[in-house]
Write a structure and sequence with these properties.
The protein is an alpha/beta fold. The protein is built from 8 helices and 8 strands, in the order αβαβαβαβαβαβαβαβ. The strands form 2 sheets. The chain has a 6-stranded parallel beta sheet with strand order 3-2-1-4-5-6, sandwiched between helices. The protein has a two-stranded parallel ribbon with strand order 7-8.
């Protein structure tokens, strides 16, 4: 897939991974203009998921544990934000009527379980992030009786990537990133592990 001339390599790099992954996840969620979509985890993936859900026309709830990341989500179009440390995200989302779909890009079993419980009847849960625990508690009765749909979403197709680039080329998305030099790779990995960056790091090779 060719990168449009007005999209820089520094932006194309995150779009080719995080952008493509979350764009596909929003597609898998079936998000539409009448829906409430909850994004659990606002970072390298989540900040783009918020934007794609808004492009789909949905009302978006951003959930995270860090106020700065929630402020970023608000800046990028989120209609509501919930700090999971300050309040129960399930209760907060249920007060809004429950989510039609949830996209989980948080790396922990607990936010996955909270995301499931925040769904309304007939809702869809999209698994994206890969928590180290690998497992979550999933209630069978509620899944069956409420007609919940659970789908896994990984990356996307060349067509999806072309659409991601086109949306960015026309100014409809914003990539939040910081650059590092290759010789800073060890420090960069530590920054990522300790969540000290707002969204994405990109290595500038020039």
């Amino acid at each position: 897939v060719k990168v449009p001339k007005n999209v820089s390599s520094l932006e194309a790099a995150p779009l080719s991974c995080a952008g493509l992954t979350t764009y596909k996840a929003v597609k898998m969620s079936g998000a539409r203009s009448s829906d409430l979509v909850a994004i659990f985890g606002i970072g390298g993936l989540g900040h783009l998921a918020v934007q794609y859900a808004k492009i789909a026309g949905a009302t978006v709830v951003a959930v995270d544990l860090v106020d700065e990341k929630l402020a970023l989500a608000k800046e990028l179009g989120a209609d509501y934000t919930v700090n999971g440390k300050a309040k129960d995200p399930v209760e907060a989302i249920k007060k809004l009527g429950g989510a039609d779909s949830v996209i989980c890009v948080a790396v922990g079993a607990r936010p996955y379980e909270q995301a499931f419980n925040a769904l309304r009847r007939g809702g869809t849960m999209v698994f994206v992030a890969l928590p180290a625990e690998n497992y979550m508690q999933l209630p069978i009765f509620e899944t069956v009786l409420n007609g919940i749909k659970i789908v896994g979403s990984i990356v996307g197709t060349p067509l999806d990537l072309a659409e991601v680039y086109q949306l960015h080329a026309t100014g409809r998305t914003k990539v939040i990133y910081e650059t590092r030099r290759l010789e800073q790779v060890n420090e960069a990995m530590e920054e990522v592990e300790h969540a000290r960056i707002p969204a994405r790091l990109v290595f500038d090779m020039i």
